[in-house]
Inverse folding.
């Protein structure tokens, strides 16, 4: 009885400790950020008011931006550091670039204080220090509070004692002991003022107690014992899927409900999704509008899949002819574009299209035609992407079609020829129906690959001209790394991409099945 009770307690306690650990990390980081930002603000204010630098803090006075005499678009600043004025030039100090950026941020937005996203928990603050001068302070690196192992061991011991006491009494007291033992792990969350985590742990405790009452935990334990050999073989793959697929997916889904700004995460609910789906107030022909990008993505996917299937089937039909000599050599050559890493292929095609002396323009000039500025208009830039991806994708469809053609009985063609069927009729009534079951899943898989083909878009056209050739996955990337580190927007767009592809997979599979049944 005690063993069974401790087993059930252990399951709930593991989940509760994980929740409590996440709550501790969140509270610890929040307090650390607040402490560092407050230190930077206080140091900047002290320097501006009294001209005194607090110990351990890097604080300087920055002068106004002055136009460069040589380059009129550049601005120079001077900084009062170490008792004298000197030019603020990147390279003199590891913090000079940060100070220069902080001064520019002050000119645009006024006084501010924020965490520096460099992983050292430093903070920077800027405040006025007289006419046209700015006091800037950088808080030193700080280590976060250590994990409270003793606290967690203490509440874990309390939980074990409560669970064991309930087991000794038996009956309803056993379930009450399980609930109380797991719920005791919520005590640190209450002390850390994390009500959501505390509530989650109490719900876990209630769930385990109810499962114990329904003998669900006993049935699961018997099933695990009965199938332990099979589960042992499945465990490595299951753990890998959980770590590499399930966990990143869950994190990305959660991040979609938050906004990231200067190292700080703020819960915004559905705001990111609303901003994306509403187009952010932009017109439908704006390259930043979600629906414009979705239209480009759908057109990109449809054009590529159509070309992949057409070229793949045509080449497969040619390579399946018995009269063709050197078929093995041709098959190997046609598979090479698929075997080469796609980013290398994308860079090669980029080099052939780019510039006046690229390989493609050189061929056009040798034929007496004018060169084309491939990335100056949407049609030509989009065409370069499609050509590159067609080169990458047709071998897959060719291999699938070749496998399907090899499985078609030759007797069908012989019987059709005896009946007087023409080549086109044999293709339409024999070849195509036998290709469809193999090409259906291949088209669905190829559509997903093409829909998310980041490398070609990013490396060939880079979204040019003006971002009009971006697809959804490259737009999500730009939200994260080129538009102010809007990781929440990127995660929300990633979630939308997943839902679109999920719908396509479900309905596409049904369409293929209906075609096979027909």
């Amino acid at each position: 009885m005690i063993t069974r009770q401790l087993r059930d307690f252990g399951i709930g306690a593991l989940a509760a400790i994980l929740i409590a650990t996440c709550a501790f990390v969140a509270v610890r980081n929040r307090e650390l950020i607040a402490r560092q930002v407050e230190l930077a603000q206080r140091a900047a204010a002290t320097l501006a008011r009294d001209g005194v630098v607090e110990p351990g803090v890097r604080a300087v006075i920055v002068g106004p931006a002055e136009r460069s005499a040589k380059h009129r678009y550049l601005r120079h600043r001077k900084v009062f550091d170490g008792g004298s004025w000197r030019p603020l030039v990147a390279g003199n100090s590891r913090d000079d670039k940060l100070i220069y950026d902080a001064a520019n941020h002050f000119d645009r937005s006024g006084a501010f204080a924020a965490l520096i996203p460099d992983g050292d928990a430093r903070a920077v603050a800027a405040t006025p220090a007289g006419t046209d001068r700015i006091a800037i302070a950088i808080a030193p690196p700080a280590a976060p509070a250590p994990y409270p192992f003793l606290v967690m061991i203490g509440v874990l011991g309390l939980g074990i004692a409560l669970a064991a006491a309930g087991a000794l009494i038996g009956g309803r007291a056993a379930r009450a002991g399980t609930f109380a033992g797991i719920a005791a792990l919520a005590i640190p969350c209450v002390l850390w003022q994390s009500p959501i985590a505390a509530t989650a742990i109490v719900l876990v405790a209630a769930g385990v107690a109810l499962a114990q009452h329904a003998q669900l935990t006993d049935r699961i334990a018997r099933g695990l014992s009965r199938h332990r050999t099979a589960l042992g073989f499945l465990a490595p793959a299951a753990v890998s899927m959980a770590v590499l697929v399930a966990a990143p997916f869950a994190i990305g889904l959660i991040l979609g409900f938050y906004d990231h700004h200067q190292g700080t995460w703020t819960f915004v609910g559905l705001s990111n999704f609303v901003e994306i789906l509403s187009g952010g107030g932009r017109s439908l022909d704006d390259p930043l509008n979600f629906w414009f990008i979705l239209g480009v993505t759908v057109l990109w996917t449809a054009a590529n899949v159509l070309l992949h299937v057409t070229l793949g089937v045509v080449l497969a039909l040619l390579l399946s002819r018995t009269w063709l000599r050197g078929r093995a050599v041709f098959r190997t050559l046609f598979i090479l574009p698929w075997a080469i890493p796609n980013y290398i292929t994308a860079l090669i095609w980029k080099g052939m299209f780019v510039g006046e002396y690229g390989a493609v323009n050189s061929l056009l000039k040798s034929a007496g035609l004018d060169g084309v500025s491939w990335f100056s208009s949407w049609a030509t830039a989009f065409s370069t992407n499609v050509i590159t991806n067609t080169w990458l994708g047709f071998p897959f469809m060719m291999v699938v079609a070749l496998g399907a053609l090899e499985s078609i009985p030759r007797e069908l063609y012989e019987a059709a020829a005896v009946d007087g069927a023409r080549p086109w009729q044999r293709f339409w009534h024999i070849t195509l129906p036998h290709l469809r079951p193999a090409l259906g899943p291949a088209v669905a898989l190829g559509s997903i690959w093409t829909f998310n083909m980041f490398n070609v878009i990013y490396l060939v056209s880079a979204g040019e001209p003006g971002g009009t050739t971006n697809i959804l996955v490259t737009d999500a990337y730009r939200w994260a790394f080129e538009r102010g580190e809007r990781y929440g927007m990127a995660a929300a767009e990633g979630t939308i991409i997943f839902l679109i592809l999920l719908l396509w997979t479900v309905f596409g599979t049904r369409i293929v099945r209906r075609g096979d049944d027909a």
Observations:
- The chain has a mean pLDDT of 87.
- The first helix runs from residue 2 to 50.
- Residues 87 and 466 are 37 Å apart (CA to CA).
